[in-house]
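CO-FOLDING WORKSHEET

Operator: S.A.
Ligand of interest: zinc ion
Run index: 227
Mode: holo prediction, single chain
Checklist:
[x] sequence pasted
[x] SMILES validated
[ ] output reviewed
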Amino acid sequence: MVDLKYIGHSAFEFKVGDKSILVDPFVSHNPKYDYKKSNIVDIFVTHGHSDHLGEAIDIAKAKKAQITAIAEVATYCANNKCKTRPVGLGSWLNYDWGRAIFLPAYHSSTLPDGSYGGVAASILFDIEGVRIFHAGDTCLTADFKTYKEIYRPNIALLPIGGTYTMDVEHAVVAADWLGAKTVIPMHYNTFPEVQADLNRFVQLMQINNTNCAVLNPEQIDQEPAKK
Ligand SMILES: [Zn+2]
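OUTPUT RECEIVED:
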């Protein structure tokens, strides 16, 4: 059983037993979230932009957690005295709670010091039989059709805010192509450039008979959604 908590923007916490995994931990955006309460063992970062790398370095140091990221991002974190696992695209990576694979995202990746962050990634997690696809920042891509065939994701975390990523209309197509039963929108309404019509997304998903779970980061203190 994996418990999924939406921290806000593209940040999620997956709880597996007494351990937690953070993805794109831009946690400073949500003052209600306190990472100190969780036993964070692993942190995943899709790319180097500050709204995704977030507070990964501080959290990794405080919790002695490992950061898994594309090599350039991982090297930046290692230079900041973090334990890291540098990776590339396309290979299953094993952990004691399950496995993950980095996949291409059509986006850029620059680190806070302006250096090149390598390729941007989406990340697919396989945790106790539940497959969660975190799209990172990407546009719609026909790759999603292949992911449906190969990985059969159960839950898809999709950006809907547009400007830097896919927008509502494209995320609806992405959900269809990925074939996930549950879709959780992310990367919207946090900045003026990523304003999205959430109701329209929910309506379009209903028409497609896909369960759209809108998670409210303001309710972070409540019980996480059971998946
Ligand atoms: Zn972003």
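REVIEW:
The CA atoms of residues 159 and 186 lie 5 Å apart.
DSSP finds six helices and 14 strands in the chain.
[x] output reviewed
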